[in-house]
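Researcher: Re-running this chain for the archive, since the previous output was lost when a drive failed. Same request as before.
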Amino acid sequence: MGISVVVISVEDDHVAAINTALRDAGHPAHCNKVSKVGNLESALLTQAPDLVLLFGNEAGERLQEVCNKVRESALPAPVLLVSETVDEEIIASAIQAGARDVVSLGNIERLQAVATRELRACQIEKTLQNVVNSANQFKQELNTLKQASVEAIADIQEGIVVHANPAWLELFGLQDGADMTGMPVMDLCCEADRSALKGAIVACQKGKWKDSELAINGRREDGSEFPVVFSLANIEYDGDPAVRVIITPKTVENKTPLSLVERAVQRDQATGFFNQQHFLYVATERLKQAPKGGVRALAYMRPDSFARARSDIGLMGTEAVLAQLAQILREFMQPADIYCRFGGTMFTVMVERGTMADVESWAEQLLEAVSEAVFEHDERSTALTCSIGLCEVDSAEADILALLDEAEGACRAARASSGNRIQLSESSGAAKKIRQDDTIWVPRIRGALMENRLRLEHQPIAGLNDDIENAYDTLVRMLDEDGNTVLPSEFMQVAERKGLTKNIDRWVIGASFTFCATNDAKLVFIRLSKDSVLDETLLGWLESQAKDAQLEPAQICFEISEDIAVQHLRQTQLMAESLRKVGFRFAIEHFGKSRNPDRTITKIPMDFVKIDGSLMQGLHKNTNAQSKVKELARLANNNSVRTIAERVQDANTMAVLWQLGVSYIQGNYVQNNEIVIEDTSQTSITTQMMTLDDDEKEASAETVS
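Model: Regenerated structure tokens:
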């Protein structure tokens, strides 16, 4: 069997020399010349080489680029640098760049020995991968055989259905295999879900789709739609890569009589949501638990002028309309949400999101989807709009009935203002005001700094279109006097008004440096407040702290919000330039909220942008939001800036982000798999107090005493 070799050189003699050396060593080599590194990608794709040799006299940028391209191609081909001279320094530099070794034409015997070693290693790796793939495929085939009678299964190659079992044909309303084979898989789902499905298939092909399920609306040949949940897996079909899609039907045959009775008692028959009584029980139990992150809110939703819709659709069609309305709500459901048909035409939902802005964005997307829908029954149709009242849940002691009263009152106010709108309850604003009461919070913040009652959580960041390992977003929490966790939304605005954010920032930086020194963290993001951006002493302090912690600056990426960057553009520019000059990285978070994001990204030097999380709410259903995220990703890519999507909640959103070119994601979808909680209780209080101004030290000491 021949061996494919790519030789990167402008000299034909180099190719001939390598070809002769390898054949003399017993390797049936077929050498292909590549004159420019820029042409390597095409050669990797067409030749699938077993060995890559680069002619050059030093391990510089060309070697690094070659190694990167080979690694990105996912080929196990080793890279060798062919140099006129070989010494320890050149070998070390080459290996650090990603090459396996350095050889020269001046020592053919060593070149042959190294090439033989690397070709053998490459062959072993290929064999091992084939064994693993075969084992995985055997396992998948075994599972398929066991459940073939109940699961709908289709195999997809390049977006086309190449095989489907009878259960799949029946589910999609087709008579035989000929009707399905050759059909684009995108024709099997509603138009709004095609971006998510395409992204999920791409993710699966790249090995990034783990155990997630994709919830979308399937589409039958007659145009009717129905909810399905796709499970995806990589397979081989006729020797070529393919993606297997499996739909497990929701059957009731295996349910016990008791579970069927429980479902009948707990759920509304028309919509499948919890009924009023069970919702009150589940929501009360949920309120006893703190949200995993962000905020919790209660939504009360009611159609506007339903009497008109009833006239359009007929009395017997009202339940069908409400069932269709429930289906629209279900498309915006996330795992932690609790949905209820509260009675009549009213729906209630308890949601958990990153911020109240995310909750409002979710509600806005929901209203838009309802207003654009056509509700049909028995050849009659109507249109609807809705009003939603929102009430923020501000404590674990909140009473569910009181919250419902607040949300219902807000909904009533929205309906009175012509409807088709969202209204925030008065108590939510009042709760914010109470939480922000300076006389309560300033002593508590200073006490937390003095008594070392701040804690860090490090939320993992996951790769999408680009790989990333051991990267974390830093979140700060306060412990109150009783040891309860206090989220930053409750104290940071007070800290900003009273000039305490610089002190908190420095505490977070010191604790994060310690985290990096004691954990295998490759990249940690740390937020900076406006006060830190304007602090001219920060850079010197950072250099000193990094040196004391024996930290590589590249492990740290400082980030500020786009609002701060726009308001203090010159100071942000100077800070970004100074930090990156030292070796730190820089990022802008909540990117895309300003009117001119292109001005921000071109004026401020940066490594990353975090696309604002409000754009992620209902992204898989919102084509306008998809277009905006795609444009932001394009803008960042054109400026060599990597993108991170904030507050990603579910697999459907992740799948769409694949298609939009976003590099990485962070949020509950990633956090549910892993979150690192850093115990900073042993951090020196004396060290932390060095960040306080003299007058603040005195005030803090008085507070503690």
